[in-house]
Amino acid sequence: MILVLGGTTEGRIAVQTLEEAGKPFYYSTKGNEQEVPLHNGIRLQGGMDKDSLESFCRKENISLLIDAAHPFAEELHRNVSETADILQIPVIRYERIYPRIENNEGIVWCDNYEDAIRQIKKEEVYIILALTGVNSISKLKALWMESSRCYFRILDRESSRESARNQGFPEEYLRYYHTGEDERLLMQQIRPEAVILKESGASGGFSEKLKAAQELGIRIFVIKRPPLHPNFLSVNGKYGLRRTVEQYYPGFYPLRSGLTTGTCAAAAAAAAIWDIFNIQGTPRPPEFAVILPNGELIDVPVEPQQRYPRSSSINNNWIVESEASVIKDAGDDPDITNGMRIKADIILPIDIDENNDETSQKDFNIIIAGGEGIGIVTMPGLGLELGAPAINPTPRKMIEDNVRMYLDYVGMPKMSDPIVVTISVPGGEEIAKRTFNPRLGIEGGISIIGTSGIVKPFSSEAFISSIRKSMEVACATGSPRVVISSGAKSERYIKAYYPELPAQAFVHYGNFIGETLKIADKLKLPRVTLGVMIGKAMKLAEGHLDTHSKKVTMNKEFIQDIAHRTGCNEDVLTAIRNMNLARELWDIIPAEKLETFSKLLTEHCKQCCAPLLLDGELTILLISEDGKIYV
Question: How many whole angstroms separate alpha carbon 545 and alpha carbon 607?
Answer without folding.
Answer: 12
